[in-house]
Design a protein that fits this description.
Layout lengths: L9 H11 L6 H18 L5 H16 L7 H11 L6 H31 L7 E4 L4 H12 L5 E5 L7 H10 L4 E4 L4 H4 L5 E4 L3 E2 L5 E4 L2 H11 L3 E4 L28 H8 L35 E4 L6 E4 L2 E3 L4 H9 L10
Parallel strand pairs: 1-2, 1-4, 2-3, 4-7, 7-9
Antiparallel strand pairs: 5-6, 6-8, 9-10
The structure holds ribulose-1,5-diphosphate (RUB).
Ribulose-1,5-diphosphate binds next to helix 2, helix 6 and strand 6.
Enzyme class: isomerase
Keywords: Carbohydrate metabolism, Isomerase
EC number: 5.3.1.29
């Protein structure tokens, strides 16, 4: 990660890179890695005063925050760790930050297990679930149902352009679940065979909207039309506190190269295969790419997430129980209270 603040240890920069480049991906894994990175920052900091230590931790948090914009689990994780940083000496600040980060990671695992047990109650023996993308919260429900002795089958959507469906298929096959892998476009045809649509979330808004991998909203609309219930598995760190005050969730735009290779672009618009028109690096920023050589008239857009309105969602399953989407705001108020600031601010 370029331009990191002074004092930010290389391990934090490399975690930030891994998140940006999606070597670490999925909202829960991103939160876990971010907390782990703050722990490493605390351990390795060479700050010689409490103020310098706090500055470094805040700078590390900012470096991590700037990686991907949509999964609120990331700022929620950072905020949680920063709020636990306490003490008048570097030693106390260090140990409180480390303890808080470790507690976050432990709670995250436990919440996922609990959520899985709750979600599993919705799945009956012999059911078929249709999945989209790869969600560890969604898979926790499947795992708990299997552990309860239920037999399940899965229809797994490939999930273009990054094909996270392959990760889901691999996990399900490790658990011996029969998997039918389908192209995203085939989903409506295969909904006739599904008993549930089961997806995760990157953020849940106060009105119960679900922000998840691009294609979730179309799947949910089709599922409603086919009468298949849509179940969203999402730990409470996916609840987006800022949406209580009317903020919207930023949808990450990723590089056009995830959709279109330079050669393919050249084949469409003519000319040499150069990166001349390819705007955007993996973060959606165009800072590293040259300005378009010519205006080819071809624009490629690659949003990574979309918004599913609450009316297409049957249940949001959290570690605190399952909720109709319209009532999720009550849980948000209970957990977050008043609206919050940037995660590195007190
Ligand atoms: O949309 C994605 C991942 O998108 P990407 O691959 O772009 O990160 C997942 O459904 C959620 O993050 C939930 O995952 P989890 O339940 O594991 O938190």
């Amino acid at each position: 990660m370029e331009g990191a603040e002074p004092g930010v240890v290389p391990a934090v920069e490399s975690t930030a890179d891994d998140i940006t480049e999606m070597r670490i991906r999925g909202a829960a894994a991103i939160a876990d890695a971010a907390a782990g990175a703050l722990e490493t920052q605390a351990e390795r900091s060479t700050a010689d005063s409490p103020a310098a230590f706090e500055r470094e931790i805040h700078a590390a948090a900012e470096t991590l925050y700037e990686t991907r914009p949509t999964a609120v689990s990331l700022p929620n994780a950072l905020r949680y760790v920063l709020r636990g940083m306490d003490g008048d000496t570097v030693a106390d600040l260090r140990s409180s930050t480390i303890a808080r980060a470790q507690r976050f990671q432990r709670d995250l695992d436990q919440a996922q297990d609990r959520l899985g047990e709750i979600g599993a109650n919705r799945l009956r023996d012999g059911d078929t679930v249709m999945t989209h993308c790869h969600s560890t919260d969604a898979l926790a429900c499947v795992e708990a149902a299997l552990e309860a002795g239920k037999e399940l089958a899965a229809i797994v959507k490939e999930t273009r352009p990054r094909k996270q469906g392959h990760i889901t298929a691999r996990q399900l096959r490790e658990w011996d679940v029969p998997v039918t892998l389908i192209a995203d476009n085939a989903a409506r045809r295969y909904l006739d065979r599904a008993d549930h649509v089961l997806v995760g979330a990157d953020s849940i808004a106060a009105d119960g909207s679900v922000i998840n991998k691009i294609g979730t909203s179309g799947l949910a609309v089709n599922a409603r039309e086919r009468g298949v219930p849509v179940m969203v598995a999402a730990q409470t760190i996916k609840l987006h506190p800022d949406t209580m005050t009317g903020h919207t969730v930023e949808i990450e735009m990723r590089s056009e190269r995830e959709l279109l290779a330079d050669e393919e672009r050249a084949a469409i618009v003519g000319g040499e295969a150069t990166d001349g028109d390819a705007k955007g690096d993996a973060t959606g920023s165009d800072a590293d790419d040259p300005a378009p050589a010519t205006d080819s008239g071809l624009t490629v857009e690659n949003p990574a997430f979309d918004v599913t309105p609450p009316r297409y969602v049957d249940a949001i399953v959290t570690e605190r129980g399952q909720f109709p989407p319209e009532s999720i705001v009550t849980l948000m108020r209970e957990l977050f209270g008043e609206p919050t600031d940037d995660p590195w601010e007190d």
